[in-house]
Design brief:
Strand content: 15-25%
Radius of gyration: 33 Å
Helix content: 40-55%
Distance between the termini: 35 Å
Number of helices: 24
Length: 684
């Protein structure tokens, strides 16, 4: 839970007390302590379950003795009373300490004036136990201690399985946490280095990092030189040279060299730590179906109360004892635990499985939204294509006052400062085929969709589209990337970006499933046409020279005719990703992409798109199966209890069995289980 508050009007303590009054125990989220807290919580639930199991077996054994005595008729009154009070004592721990989480939740629900699952469970347990105790005191034979113990046992069994499933979901962020080393070499006062836990690092500490290791904390270099791979955070595939005063981030990889760094932030305060906290906070958005379930649960308890009262009044005409028995049966079987378990459990398991396949889902609700979308908009460069452009031809045409070597140097310096695939290709080509050096650049500005510009002395350098570099007609130099100096073109590069091997399969799959496919690219029309031809796309739906704003407007236009899935770069396509019903980042840095889209692909593989669509569809099928089962159970069970077919004992088994069935359906769901490498031709 995250909240914002004004310390001038309310204190954090008063907020915590308010949350506690609602039946919850607030505590600060500390990444390092989260595993310990979760383990401790799981152990308490296991202990509650074990005690409830012992209580159930004891009360059931005593109930069998009482039942056998009734059949044979040889059970003495004092023996019946003895067995009855033993049942009371063995049932007492189950309905008190074992069921305490439900009682706390019920108190919170009453304070909030809301009907919840905890309120229903607590009402069933307390009413059944109280009525049984009264009957025991006045000497009646009809007691339900065994049913109450069995009820809480199966209830805790379902809750324990749910907690274990949620523990598996915590592995989503754990996979990213593994990128940060658990230990670091910290410099001690005597000058020696000692291995310490990364979470024990503090700002100002000096740490040593060697080639092949990842940085354990955020900081800056105070000694040494090396090359750092920042791809996990920035998406930049080209290594970055670092030296004195260069910034380094936790989780990034030092490829070569040895660095002595000063720590600026460690643990949860690092850029990676904040990203993990961001993931934890944003995963629980309710889907439309989950929101519908919440609305149903809000009025479920009042309806059950009316049905229970009706049952009591009807059976009162027959027998008071039978009236109590069937009323308790209605309360037990009507508990909508299975209905409340279905949506969060299936969403959590799907998010966990998707993360293992390389699909990071920040908002679980997008699985439902994905199945409601019919339009898909794709970026071209780096999405449909490899993004690893190759230089096919170079034409240097510098004026007399600029040498070709000088033009190469400026071009190499400018291209190496940009993350665009075209710039990376140019920088790599010049590095391997020309003897160029770095020039001192100032006022470097990356213009999304256009190119990059900077100043070198008094000269204005631009590298990008012809219209951007020369302030000329967009049709000038078609298909070329242009380097200009003070508005004058001095070099032209012909680039080629081949489609991804799996792109044609994805396009065929989307068309077969009835998707409307649109390509929006900032590239030149000729490059877009070549890509469309290679992938058998309709040229009329492939748009060239789209600025980030053009892509956003295109997505908003399509949104008026149905939901849109936008697939593209987390930086250049940020506006379009935010405007779409579902934004999927396939390129760019993890942090930048998750700020604007709910889905990030951990590797640039279009087969993951097919896996995401397939998994979302199967997740929806499993969720609907669970909801249908829950409704059939609740409606049928209440009817059977009201007409007297089911008594408390049967209902105490049926209610938790329904929850266990829901958990089984969720665990057996095929969502995100098929191999990612396969495309499916199944239609939704």
């Amino acid at each position: 839970m995250q909240l914002r508050y004004n310390p001038n009007t309310v204190t954090l303590g008063s907020i915590a007390r308010g949350i506690r009054r609602l039946g919850y125990r607030p505590h600060p989220w500390i990444a390092a302590a989260e595993h310990t807290r979760a383990t401790r919580e799981r152990r308490v639930w296991i202990l509650r379950f074990a005690i409830a199991a012992a209580s159930m077996m004891a009360t059931m054994h005593l109930a069998v003795n009482l039942f056998a005595g009734d059949l044979t008729g040889d059970l003495e009154p004092h023996a019946r009373s003895f067995f009855g009070w033993l049942s009371f004592l063995t049932c007492l721990p189950a309905v008190t300490w074992c069921a305490m989480p439900y009682h706390r939740g019920a108190v919170g629900a009453l304070r909030a004036r809301r009907a919840t699952l905890d309120l229903t469970v607590s009402l069933v347990l307390l009413s059944g136990f109280t009525i049984s105790t009264i009957h025991l005191v006045i000497g009646r034979h009809d007691v339900y201690f065994d049913a109450m113990a069995m009820f809480i046992f199966f209830l805790l069994a379902g809750r324990l399985l749910f907690i274990m499933a949620k523990d598996r979901v915590r592995g989503d962020a754990a996979a990213l946490t593994m990128l940060v080393p658990s230990h670091a070499r910290r410099e001690m006062p005597d000058g020696n280095f000692r291995s310490v836990a990364s979470q024990h690092l503090h700002p100002g500490d000096h740490i040593s990092v060697q080639g092949g290791e990842r940085f354990p904390a955020d900081g800056h270099v105070i000694s040494g030189q090396g090359t750092v791979d920042n791809a996990v955070l920035t998406g930049e595939s080209m290594p970055l040279a670092v030296g004195l005063e260069s910034s380094v981030r936790a989780g990034t990889l030092l490829m070569d060299g040895t660095l002595l760094c000063q720590v600026e932030a460690a643990g949860a305060n690092t850029q990676m730590g904040k990203l993990l906290a961001h993931l934890h906070s944003d995963q629980s958005g309710p889907s439309p179906i989950a929101a519908l379930v919440d609305r149903v649960l809000a009025w479920f308890a009042p309806v059950v109360a009316i049905l229970a009262t009706t049952t009591f009044l009807l059976w009162l005409q027959v027998d008071l004892s039978r009236a109590w028995e069937q009323t308790i049966a209605v309360l037990i079987v009507a508990c909508p635990c299975a209905l409340g378990l279905a949506a969060p459990l299936i969403q959590a398991l799907s998010v966990n499985r998707a993360a293992r396949q390389g699909i990071l889902i920040r908002d679980a609700a997008i699985q439902e939204r994905l199945t409601q979308c019919r339009h898909v908009v794709l970026d071209k460069t780096g999405t449909l294509t490899t993004g690893a452009m190759h230089v096919r031809q170079i034409s240097f045409t510098p004026p007399q006052h600029i040498t070709e070597i000088q033009a190469q140097t400026w071009c190499q310096s400018l291209a190496s400062r940009s993350g665009h695939p075209a710039s990376r290709a140019i920088a790599s080509h010049l590095h391997h085929h020309h003897d160029s050096h770095q020039a001192p650049l100032t006022e470097v500005v990356d213009v999304p969709g256009q190119g990059i510009q900077a100043r070198c002395g008094s000269h204005l350098l631009r590298l990008g589209t012809a219209a951007f570099a020369q302030d000329s007609n967009p049709d000038a130099d078609p298909g070329h990337t242009v380097l200009s100096v003070d508005g004058l073109a001095v070099a032209r590069f012909t680039l080629y970006d081949p489609p991804r091997p799996e792109a044609a399969e994805l396009i065929a799959l989307l068309e077969q499933q009835g998707w409307s496919i649109t390509v929006a690219s900032g590239d030149h029309p000729q490059a877009v046409a070549d890509c469309a031809r290679a992938l058998n796309l309709n040229p009329s739906t492939c748009h060239a020279r789209c600025s980030p704003e053009d892509k956003r407007l295109l997505v908003e236009k399509l949104e008026n005719n149905g939901g849109v899935v936008m697939i593209g770069d987390g930086i250049n396509d940020a506006a379009a990703l935010q405007a779409a019903s579902v934004g999927i980042g396939i390129r760019g840095g993890l942090q930048a992409t998750l700020q604007v889209s709910p889905v990030f692909l951990l590797r640039p593989d279009l087969a993951l798109i097919a896996a995401l669509l397939r998994g979302a569809r199967k997740s929806r099928i499993s969720l609907r199966q669970c909801l249908v089962w829950s409704l059939i159970y609740n409606v049928g069970g209440i009817a059977a209890a009201m007409i007297g077919w089911w008594g408390p004992w049967i209902c105490a088994i049926a209610m938790p069995t329904s929850s266990l069935t829901i958990i089984a359906i969720a665990l057996m769901s095929r969502a995100f289980r098929e191999p990612v490498s396969t495309f499916t031709s199944q239609t939704p």
